[in-house]
Amino acid sequence: MSSYAITGAARGIGFEFVNQLSTDPENTVFALVRSKTTADRLVALGRPNVHILEADITNTNGLKYAAAEVARITGSSLDYLINNAGFVESERDGLTLESYSSEELLTKDLLDSFKVNVVGVIHTINIFLPLLKNGKAKKVVTISSGVGDLDLTIGFEIATFAPYSISKAAVNMANAKYAAQYKSEGFVFLAISPGVVDTSTRPPTADELERFNVMIGKLRKVYPDFTGPITPETSVRMQLEVINRTTVDDTGAFISHKGNKEWL
Questions:
Q1: InterPro entries from the xrefs (predicted)?
Q2: Please, what are the domains in the chain?
């Protein structure tokens, strides 16, 4: 029996983590969502081992409330924390750093990305650390992205997705800092890229489809066998295989859903 807390659990990859982990009735799964009004799919699972908690990772009071609820239910312990919640400004993800219409808009996108994808993750880890120290697994997983990898960015000449990519590179360093501090206590801190995953809830616009096709074209220059995005179900299944086999010797790593540096 293991306990898991998953942020950003209402949809996409976060929901699929909840779905797959809660199929084992021995697991206790805490699904953290920004608003319970968005949790229809979680409610529809109808599983008594799934506890839906309202907590926006940019609100430390909400996170502290969620941690207190976890402590109340588990007896003050937590085995796994999965930092899945994230932010990307999709309306401007096709821009490069020098193509913004104003300095103010660029600053906003950089700070918004950093606030959620870095600061929010750090606060979440800090608030749940006392429970994780009492857990059996002591594993903290942060969902990162291959676009946060310097070699991929240069090799594939990906100049877009800049604020998001920069924030993911930063959270990879935060993951390494925690690993450096807590390795001696048996913790495993892991930053993992889920692959290219189709989490869309609507058909893409023409502009979105054009930008996506441009990026896919660049990726296929290096990976000609790449066939396109995988489903959340496939991504989470592969991620869990990686998460379950990692040990303290792997702490601080930034790897893909395949357990290596192959991001697709």
A1: NAD(P)-bd_dom_sf, SDR_enzymes, SDR_fam
A2: 3-256 (3.40.50.720)
